[in-house]
Specification:
489 residues; mainly beta; Immunoglobulin-like; six-stranded mixed beta sheet; 3 helices; 32 strands; globular; hydroquinone:oxygen oxidoreductase activity; Cupredoxin; CuRO_1_LCC; metal-binding; glycoprotein
């Protein structure tokens, strides 16, 4: 059994939370090591305020919050507000060497969080190397005063941490689960035995109700899910299981299942043993996209769909797993190589100062502005066998400059280089409309005819299907922002 593979966090009586009201707009995050014991193993981990997961931030739509971050750890750190658009204020969004330099050990930096259109469940996390594994927490954004949820008010919203938690429920009541996938890479099937779940929001935006036996949640995504406690009083497993196309025998991924228990209140004899919920096969790619395929925005008067209908800028980006040669074939990748990732065959190289600062002060030599609009090399991207010479990308610090208020369509095309896998993609500073997706190679003449331009879901994190593609649209109306983060988010 695996503990803390997926963390599900919500808001009722959560002692680690930080509430932001009109009189409380300044918070303190102290980044420091703390000793934690999990699965009978004790170790020091990096935390915020000594908590793992870190404190939950509660706010109302449209609030502005200042977070004073003190780095008392041993390494550089930044904090990113995942899914927060930060309109016209990218300076404290958090991506290391993109919008800000890291906070050095012993230093303090005040970060402003500007909430605008977001409403629902978001999250925050470290954005330096692998520190996100333990430095993260939830952001819960409630409707403004005088407004309400676009679905029946749940009886409770409950904090859940899988692995050590029992969710106690009353028969006949409805619970709002705010689900965050804080895993570094794993896409997860999530389900509750003998219960259906109804998705009502994702990435801080509401959706039309979508009822499913399971959901697939990709790294960095959030889901708002209604759970009706409508089964016979008993104990039921809730569980999460990795989706992966990697062979089980080669230990490329963790194939364990993380569990917690939904426990009905009352007097009865619990069933024994408990049964796990039914999951698709771990490598069922068709099952992995079913929730993504069913999501629709509300597209009503209070939550309009403003999807660009005639984009002025169209881009096609290939996303790939690549490899670099290592001295004496000494790395852990195939044939002693080192794994990397690329977009349009360019693997990002971090600069020594942040790109936004270089742009603002016109500092030359930090980055280039020639990021290609289309793949520099066109081939059968999803073929079973591809030439080995395609596996090694170029290295560069390149950006794509967009005109202010231009409307943009980006098609992300997955490739089968090294490993044809799914590719989580997150856009900083924006939410975007997912207007289309498919398997195989994108066809610019045929596939746009199937776009959903009426009620596509509004998201900030999506996943390119294994050997497939997705198409997104947005308006470039937030100057200074727009960095896509691929794979590690």
């Amino acid at each position: 059994m695996k503990v803390f593979l997926l963390q599900i966090l919500a808001f009722l009586l959560f002692g680690g939370g930080i509430h932001c009201q009109a009189s409380t707009r300044r918070l303190t995050f102290v980044v420091k090591e703390a000793s934690y014991t999990r699965l009978c193993s004790t170790k020091n981990i990096l935390t915020v305020n000594g908590q793992f997961p870190g404190p939950t931030i509660y706010a109302k739509k449209g609030e502005t919050i200042i977070v004073d971050v003190y780095n008392r750890g041993k390494e550089n750190i930044t904090i990113h507000w995942h899914g927060v658009n930060m309109p016209r204020y990218p300076w404290t969004d958090g991506p290391e060497y993109i919008t800000q330099c890291p906070i050095q050990p012993g230093s303090k930096f005040s970060q402003k969080i500007i909430l605008s259109s977001e409403e629902g469940t978001l999250w925050w996390h470290a954005h330096s190397d692998w520190t996100r594994a333990t430095v993260h927490g939830a952001i819960i954004v409630y409707p403004k005063n005088g407004t309400k949820y676009p679905f029946p008010k749940p009886n409770a919203e409950i904090p859940i941490i899988l692995g050590t938690f029992k969710l106690r429920v009353d028969h006949g009541k409805t619970y709002l689960l705010r689900i965050i996938n804080a895993a570094l890479h794993e896409a997860l099937f999530f389900s509750i035995a003998k219960h259906k779940m109804t998705v009502v929001g994702t990435d801080g935006s509401y959706t039309k109700p979508l009822t499913r036996d399971y959901i697939t949640i990709y790294p960095g995504q959030t889901f708002d899910v209604l759970l009706e406690a409508n089964q016979l009083p008993d104990h039921y497993y809730m569980a999460a299981k990795t989706y992966s196309i990697a062979p089980v025998a080669q230990n490329f991924y963790d194939n364990t299942t993380t569990t917690a228990i939904v426990q009905y209140r009352g007097y009865y004899t619990p069933s024994s043993p408990l049964s796990l919920p039914h999951f698709p096969a771990y490598n069922d790619t068709n099952a992995s996209v079913q929730v993504m395929a069913g999501l629709r925005s509300l597209a009503d008067a209070e939550h309009p769909s403003n999807v660009p209908l005639s984009p002025s800028t169209k881009l096609i980006y290939t996303v790939s797993v690549n490899s670099f040669l290592c001295p004496n074939n000494s790395c852990a990748g195939p044939n002693g190589t080192r794994f990397s990732a690329s977009i349009n065959n360019i693997s990002f190289q971090s600069p020594t100062i942040d790109i936004l600062q270089a742009y603002y002060y016109n500092i030359s030599g930090v980055y280039g502005d020639k990021f290609p609009s289309v793949p520099p090399l066109v081939f059968d991207f999803t073929a079973d066998y591809l030439p080995l010479e395609y596996q090694t990308p170029e290295i560069g610090t390149e950006v794509r400059v967009l005109e202010y208020n231009s409307t943009v369509e980006i098609v992300f095309q997955g490739t089968n280089l090294v490993a044809g896998t799914h590719h989580p993609m997150h856009l900083h500073g924006y939410s975007f409309y997912l207007v289309g997706w498919g398997f195989g190679n994108f066809d610019k003449n045929r596939d746009p005819l199937r776009y959903n331009l009426v009620d596509p879901p509004l998201q900030s994190t999506i996943s390119v299907p294994t050997n497939g593609w997705v198409a997104i649209r947005f308006e470039a109306s937030n100057p200074g922002e727009g960095g896509f983060i691929y794979k590690a988010l």
